[in-house]
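Tokens in:
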């Protein structure tokens, strides 16, 4: 069993942005009376999306919203490894799948690149690039291995070269998720060339959602996480 503790260095306060506060109240309203505490995971995740990690003030703020003891919120945050209890890279935190299918397809080489270009240690932010990384267990995209996850986005079918290029793109902007070999989904390579199956879309639904969301953010000049 791994004991996870909150970081020694904490901000003085936390509060949701106006938009996130509206969103949080809407999530709470989905649950029956006296069951509002069930919203603790989505609220924690939104706090992490806003700040990059889960701080003690964020735990206390969410506990107050949900009328929970702070220790109960901390128990949830410390149980799930998707919640970061210490600061990670402000630009991006890269989660490299290291489970067997990805390992057989080269994830260990991706991890070596992370050690060389970001940090030798996992979850240690690089001050130069504002990136951090960690090895995680299966993220459910074995047919597109090796895979990394950044936030809610998957970057699939990676090679050493495409992953290095991806790191460059992350530092400069927001690279397009999905297959880095331009596969539509998880079909065999060359499937659409050798079969009679035709597709009307150029991008699958996940990639289209990312592009549409990015466009809306660009038009509104809003960033979920700003690099200071």
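Residues out:
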């Amino acid at each position: 069993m791994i004991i996870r503790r909150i970081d020694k260095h904490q901000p003085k306060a936390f509060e949701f942005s106006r938009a996130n506060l509206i969103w949080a109240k809407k999530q709470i309203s989905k649950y029956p009376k006296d069951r509002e505490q069930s919203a603790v995971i989505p609220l924690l995740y939104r706090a992490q999306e806003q700040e990059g990690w889960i701080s003690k003030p964020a735990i206390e703020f969410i506990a107050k919203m949900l009328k929970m003891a702070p220790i109960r919120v901390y128990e949830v945050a410390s149980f799930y490894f998707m919640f970061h209890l210490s600061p990670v890279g402000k630009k991006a935190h890269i989660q490299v799948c290291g489970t067997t299918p990805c390992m057989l397809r080269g994830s260990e080489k991706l991890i070596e690149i992370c050690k060389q270009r970001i940090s030798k240690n996992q979850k240690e932010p690089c001050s130069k690039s504002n990136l951090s990384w960690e090895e995680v267990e299966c993220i459910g995209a074995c047919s597109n291995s090796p895979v990394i996850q950044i936030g809610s986005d998957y970057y699939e079918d990676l090679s050493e070269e495409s992953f290095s290029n991806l790191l460059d793109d992350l530092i400069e902007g927001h690279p397009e998720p999905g297959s880095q070999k331009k596969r539509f989904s998880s079909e065999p390579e060359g499937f659409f060339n050798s079969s009679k199956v035709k597709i009307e879309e150029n991008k699958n639904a996940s990639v289209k959602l990312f592009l549409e969301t990015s466009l809306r953010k660009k038009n509104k000049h809003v960033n979920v996480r700003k690099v200071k």
